[in-house]
Write a structure and sequence with these properties.
Enolase-like, domain 1, alpha/beta, single chain, Rossmann fold
Length: 264
């Protein structure tokens, strides 16, 4: 590992990024990076396959008077090397790291089903207290069946609850759905500590690594996406489409996995 990568992953030891570490440790292969696309809403890394991550940005802090080295070409790296960026405190680098992780993971086809996370929550959420971390299209429908629905978001819009509300509402929740962008901003482990042991916990969103490691950390369901048409996906990601638009191209498939295969 070069010095720049080692510097970027310093959060691994300092802030206890144990889930990320477990996911990366589980990867038993590597591959050369073939292509990287950094779109307005989505980032794609192509190595073994095409991995996606929600594009997140933030100010990159540098020490005054210290010049940064020239940027590395990602295609000179392996996916495992780029995966180390997932530990970075810079969201733009952590985004690349998650996409690189997803480019190496091949989900167990015997354990995944094609289903939308919203459908799972609607089926299981009738008259339940539900917390959703992040904005998702299904929340309006979920509100109609839930006993209480608390949408907790960093960037609050009307009807949302601010992120510090997690301490109040997660312990009261029967079902908790957490956006996988929490892996990018390194809030996932803190959120899990607030979840009741007997609650149903889901990690969701296209950033989600389809790794069985999450079951070891208390998740019941992981819901993400698989790129089925790489060329189409890369084209539209480069053009800045959002996820709903990308889904309509037919280039991705929404999938879910649990310890046991889901059935309708």
């Amino acid at each position: 590992m070069n010095k720049d990568i080692a510097k970027d992953c310093s959060l691994k030891s300092n802030n206890g990024q144990y889930i990320l570490q477990a996911i990366i440790d589980k990867l038993n292969l590597d591959a050369q990076i073939k292509e990287v696309r950094r779109g307005l809403h989505w980032t794609a890394v192509v190595s073994r396959s095409c991995g996606l991550s929600s594009t997140m940005t933030g100010e990159h802090c540098v020490h005054e008077g210290v010049e940064e080295s020239p940027p590395a070409s990602f295609t000179d790296m392996t996916a495992m090397e780029l995966a180390q960026y997932s530990y970075s405190g810079d969201p733009s680098k952590a985004t690349l790291g998650l996409a690189a992780i997803n480019s190496l993971i091949e989900a167990d086809k015997s354990k995944i089903v094609s289903i939308n996370a919203g459908d799972i929550l609607l089926k299981n959420g009738v008259n339940k207290n539900i917390s959703v971390i992040g904005h998702f299209p299904f929340t309006d429908a979920l509100k109609k069946v839930a006993k209480n629905l608390w949408v907790i978001e960093k960037r609050v819009i009307e009807g949302d609850y601010p992120e510090d509300s997690a301490e109040k509402y997660l312990p009261q929740s029967d079902i908790i759905a957490i956006s996988a962008t929490s892996l990018i901003n390194h809030t996932l482990q803190n959120l899990l500590e607030l979840c009741p042991k007997n609650s149903m916990k889901m990690l969701l969103g296209p950033t989600t690594p389809m790794s069985e490691v999450f079951f070891d950390f208390g998740f019941d369901i992981i819901s993400g996406s698989i790129v089925t048409d790489q060329n189409t996906a890369l084209k539209y990601i480069s053009e800045g489409v959002n996820f709903r638009q990308l889904k309509k191209t037919g280039a991705i498939r929404l999938v879910a996995m649990t310890k046991e295969v889901l059935h309708d």
